[in-house]
Design goal:
Layout lengths: L10 H13 L2 H8 L3 H15 L4 E4 L2 E4 L1 H28 L5 E7 H6 L1 H11 L4 E7 L2 H9 L5 E5 L6 E15 L12 H4 L4 E4 L7 H8 L7 E5 L2 H9 L4 E5 H4 L7 E4 L5 E9 L6 H25 L1
Helix pairs in contact: 1-2, 1-3, 1-4, 2-3, 6-12
Length: 309
């Protein structure tokens, strides 16, 4: 018994097989597939030769499936269905009718800015899914991007490696002091801030490497009383009068009622941005998401300019 060489079976033959089975006629199948009747006849004959069976009984009234043809027609239709699904899926991935964007973001951006981006994106592209991974710091965001678990990262930009960065906006660091803090009018001085115990994020939180470098260069030494791994807990401790802190504005909000907020004696900013792998292959949905991010960034900048003007 000879073995069928599956590699010689062509998808065109299966489409001809399915069309003739559906219409019961070589001529009608040819018209449906926009081919000549001889091309359909040749396709069926060559398929029967490859399989070593007769699939149709030919007669004056057309073509009817043989018992063997009846047994295998469903298999042929399933193959064609799966092929159509494969093509549809890849077309959607190349286009904007479907697909998915996976976003990794630091807490402050995931909480206070990303939702409005997603709302605008879903309004334009309702068929594209968006998933969010909230990360502790920019180091974790970069790791998630590099391992392929996310497509776009939203984070503070600090010596990014292997990433293409789309700058968003600068985020000012601010001083937060207890509700009962006595503060004179005018700018703060470091001598005034030294009166309060300093509450900071833990040393291994790389989102605050910039802040640690800033503090190390100050003309005064600020005594660190507590180190915590959650921004909201730090702010709550300030609200309870346990000390003061220095945090980026987006990381500090929402600021409890009564907490005193002042500008630093020496300004400090962090740059926030969106990032993708520099050497990655990115789908149209990812570029559409980046376009939406930049659009929302531009709207925020315009609104800020109008407010200041």
């Amino acid at each position: 018994m000879s073995t069928v060489d599956v590699s010689k079976i062509k998808l065109f033959q299966l489409r001809a097989f399915a069309a003739v089975a559906e219409y019961g006629s070589f001529g009608k199948a040819a018209a449906e597939l926009e081919l000549t009747q001889s091309a359909i006849s040749h396709a069926i004959a060559s398929l029967e030769a490859e399989l070593g069976v007769v699939l149709f009984s030919r007669g004056r009234r057309g073509a009817a499936l043989t018992p063997t043809g009846t047994e295998v027609i469903d298999n042929a239709r399933q193959i064609l269905h799966h092929l159509d699904q494969l093509v549809s899926t890849t077309q959607q991935a190349r286009g904007l009718a479907g697909g998915q964007v996976r976003v990794a973001a630091i807490r402050s951006l995931a909480t206070h800015w990303l939702p409005q981006v997603i709302a605008a994106f879903k309004q334009r592209y309702p068929q594209i899914g968006v998933t969010i991974t909230r990360c502790v710091n920019h180091g974790e965001v970069q790791t998630v991007l590099q391992t392929g678990a996310a497509d776009v990262g939203l984070m503070d930009i600090y010596h990014p490696a292997g990433l293409k960065v789309y700058e968003l906006f600068a985020d000012d660091y601010i001083a937060l002091l207890p509700p009962r803090a006595v503060l004179p009018d005018g700018p703060l001085t470091w001598a005034q801030l030294r009166q309060y115990p300093l509450i900071l994020p833990v040393p291994n939180d790389n989102s605050y490497t910039l802040l640690r470098e800033y503090l190390a260069q100050l003309p005064v030494h600020l005594d660190i009383a507590y180190e915590l791994n959650e921004d909201s807990t730090i702010v709550s401790m300030v609200a309870e009068g346990l000390g003061m802190t220095i945090l980026p504005y987006f990381a500090a909000i929402p600021i409890p009622l009564g907490v005193r907020v002042r500008a630093l004696p020496l300004p400090l900013k962090r740059q926030l941005g969106a990032a993708v792998l520099a050497d990655g292959i990115h789908s149209p949905p990812i570029y559409a998401f980046l376009d939406t991010i930049q659009q929302k960034r531009d709207e925020a900048v315009s609104a800020a300019s109008l407010a200041s003007g």
